[in-house]
Amino acid sequence: MAHAIIEHAQRELPGAGSEVQPIGGVNEPMQLLVKTEADFAGRERWLLLTAYDDLMDDTDETRIVQIFYRFPAEAPAPADRGDFARLLVAVNNVITIGQFCYREEDALLYFRALVMLPAAPDSWTTLLNDHLSLAAFQIDQFGLAIESSAIGAQTVQAAIAADPRRIGQAEHLLQAHRQRRL
Asked: What's this model's pTM, rounded to 2 decimal places?
């Protein structure tokens, strides 16, 4: 049986303009792919919703949903990940929800955000739509710099310099923080 939030999203998000595709199987959590507007490069983009029940044992008042996006590119080779990780930290310091990450073992490059929803479903559609839109916006704002740095099309320094209003500000704050720690 599908999770109540996934069932709700599958039923309600198409009415709000999103295309959805359920996924899952035996002994797997039910998940839902949600098609959003094309990404920063004009490619089709699907965000994965996963609902979790086991993460907050002490409350029945909230539910947790993860929004996940896998980049079409992989993280750079291990020898080149130092500067790339610094870029991700700089970006993560200025975004409002979620984080851009990569997995060490397979170089999977992704964005993920956790969303807390109330137990009552009255506001689920609005909250899910708002958070999906915010996730897509953040991927568009920073995804090009992240992806082009990951594939070597530009250096991390060039990505930061090309967008000093956002990433550069975060890099400046990170450097100031490092200086205070020394």
From this structure: 0.84
